[in-house]
Amino acid sequence: MIRTTATPARWRAYAVGCVAALGIAASAVPAAAAPAADGNDRYTAEEIHTFLEDFYGEHGPGDFARKYGISPQLKEKVADNPEFDVLLCAQNIPASIDIGPVTTAQSARVGWATVSTYWNGGSGKADFTAYVDLDATRPIQLLDVDCGSGS
User: Fold this and answer.
1) Does 149 have pLDDT greater than 70?
2) DSSP 8-state secondary structure symbol assigned to residue 6
3) Sign, CA torsion 64/65/66/71
4) 58-109: per-residue pLDDT in tens?
5) Which pairs from 19-23 meet CB under 8 Å and 24+ separation?
């Protein structure tokens, strides 16, 4: 004989509460933890742009970005130039920073954008190029910075 009983209302409320809590927790996972959207294990131009905006912020990269957001080769380049901020192509902190459109070279597995730094309350401007690895099987990182001849 199979015995059937109605589920008490308090258990239904508990179950609904747990499901709601799991939904909130799942929506709190950062977008960076999501896989790359292009389906080829490559970061998209939009993801690179978001990374560069987060990396550079308004006045330059913070300590966390400088430690974890750059490739080992770029860390060496930074260490070899203690008098110059390689990541900003400057010696001082800019008033503000803008990230231009991102270009991706799928065959080279690299993306890049022009980073514009503004100085003297916005009256001075300097541009450099930031390069990011497209390989989405690894955490996104800044590969290199080209200060160019005009910076």
Assistant:
1) no
2) P
3) positive
4) 999 999 999 999 999 999 999 999 999 999 999 899 999 999 999 999 888 9
5) none
Amino acid at 30: P
Contacts of 47 by beta carbon, 8 Å cutoff, 6+ apart: 36, 37, 140
Distances in Å between the Cα of 34 and the Cα atoms of 23, 26, 110, 136, 140 are 16, 11, 19, 10, 12
Looking up tokens 């916005």 gives: 122
Tokens (6 digits) for 87:
């990541």
Beta strand residue intervals within 63-141, DSSP E: 96-105, 110-119, 124-133
* Percent of the chain residues past pLDDT 90, beyond the cut: 63
**Which residue is it, tokens 């960076």?**
32
Q: How far is 44 from 38, CA to CA, in rounded Å? A: 6
Q: How many CA atoms lie within 13 A of 17 on its CB side?
A: 6
d(CA 123, CA 90): 16
Residue 115 to residues 5, 27, 61, 143, 147, Cα–Cα distance (Å) = 66, 31, 12, 14, 10
* Nearest alpha carbon to residue 75 among 95, 92, 61: 61
Tokens at 147, concatenated: 């200060």
